[in-house]
Specification:
Layout: H1 26-43, H2 47-60, H3 66-78, H4 82-94, H5 103-107, H6 125-145, H7 153-174, H8 179-182, H9 196-200, H10 216-224, H11 230-241, E1 254-258, H12 270-274, E2 278-282, H13 293-309, H14 314-326, E3 338-342, H15 345-352, E4 356-357
Parallel strand pairs: 1-3
Antiparallel strand pairs: 1-2, 2-4
Helix pairs in contact: 1-2, 2-3, 3-4, 6-7, 10-11
Length: 363
């Protein structure tokens, strides 16, 4: 998995969604509980137990998320259960997941090729193309800007307004889509669907580009329909409402990047600059043993909110973040690194003084 970096320039906002969504579907509550246990077993390297849990989870929910299918396939491969791994591979192929060119030959040399694969999953390619066109609109001026969003501020705001309103209207008409509707052609390697970015860009904390559409109700409904993972719901809800209900910046893993290109266009050389990134730094509260009463109260509040959505505890999530730094075979939820971009090393050193170098052995 390639970790994607988020460049967050947060501004104060006033809009908030008054209700706290909650997962109430008992079947989904059970499913996510088992999936969280399976992911914990992956982190602790108890892969046989992890596969047992995945099989148990898939019996409770007929349309398991692609992330979970993928992780169960990887677990099965590692413990040499190639038949089960191949079954998961075939489902992912039916969902249009893009495997590397040699994946089949390297991992399933004894199995029949899947060119004649018969899929029982019926994808709505028309729906996907419609959402792809909205994403293209969302990205058009962002790509032109090279990160200099101020130059195209009006154009970006205009396109975002149109794209978000159209997206919400389509969702209300056709329902919130996931990989069983759209497939995975338009999703990232971490199964983050492209149309999620349209929701992301309706963050309510940006005074330069006021929010036009709030997706909180649609997200809460989709959560209870099993159409979106709790982690993605939490991430998008916090953005849409300027909240930190499900995590906090205190628990980010941070890497520092020096922008060696044009300061006005920080994205032009982002891939090149990322190769030289200085990782990984954390706030002292990242470590349970370094938390004071204020920190523990914050963690307790976050855990209560996470539980309502069917998410793992915050500390289990932090263990997954650390695991993700060293293991690329699995796709663990919202385990990305937060990138901070600066023009010179002196500014970075000032921030570093407030942080600790991540020490895996302390967690």
């Amino acid at each position: 998995m390639r970790l994607f970096c988020i460049f967050l320039f947060l501004l104060a906002g006033s809009f908030s969604y008054s209700q706290t969504p909650e997962l109430t579907d008992k079947k989904l509550i059970l499913y996510y509980s088992i999936i969280n246990q399976a992911e914990n077993k992956i982190v602790s390297n108890h892969l046989d137990s992890a596969l047992i849990l995945y099989k148990k989870a898939f019996k409770t929910f007929e349309k398991p998320f692609a992330k979970d299918l993928y992780n169960s396939m990887q677990v099965a491969l590692k413990i040499k259960d190639s038949d089960y791994a191949f079954r998961q591979y075939r489902v992912l192929k039916c969902l249009d997941y893009s495997f590397s060119e040699n994946f089949l030959a390297q991992n399933f040399p004894k199995h029949k090729k899947t060119e004649d694969l018969r899929c029982e999953i019926s994808l709505d390619h028309s729906y996907r193309k419609t959402l792809d066109s909205l994403f293209t609109m969302d990205q058009h001026y962002r790509k032109l800007s090279g990160g200099d969003y101020a130059r195209y501020q009006k154009e970006i705001a205009f396109n975002d307004s149109i794209a978000s309103k159209k997206l919400l209207k389509i969702i209300q008409q056709k329902g919130f889509p996931n990989e069983y509707d759209l497939g995975l052609q338009s999703a990232g390697s971490d199964f983050f669907h492209q149309f999620y970015f349209i929701i992301w860009h309706q963050a309510s904390n940006n005074r330069l580009k006021p929010q036009q559409t709030n997706f909180s109700e649609a997200l809460a409904k989709a959560l209870n329909q099993g159409k979106i993972t709790p982690e993605h719901v939490a991430f998008l809800l916090d953005l849409n409402n300027s909240t930190h209900n499900y995590s906090s910046r205190h628990f980010d893993i941070i890497e520092f990047i020096i922008n060696e290109g044009n300061p006005a266009r920080p994205h032009d050389k982002v891939a090149e600059n990322l190769k030289k990134a200085d990782c990984c730094y954390v706030h002292q509260w990242f470590y349970p043993q370094k938390r004071d009463e204020k920190a523990n109260n914050l963690v307790n509040s976050i855990n209560a909110n996470r539980k309502k959505l069917g998410m793992s505890s915050l500390d289990d999530h932090l263990k997954k973040k650390i695991f993700n730094l060293h293991h690329t075979d699995f796709i663990l939820p919202q385990a990305q690194i937060v990138g901070m971009s600066f023009q010179n090393a002196e500014d970075i050193e000032k921030i570093k003084k407030l942080l600790l170098k991540l020490d895996d052995s302390h967690y």
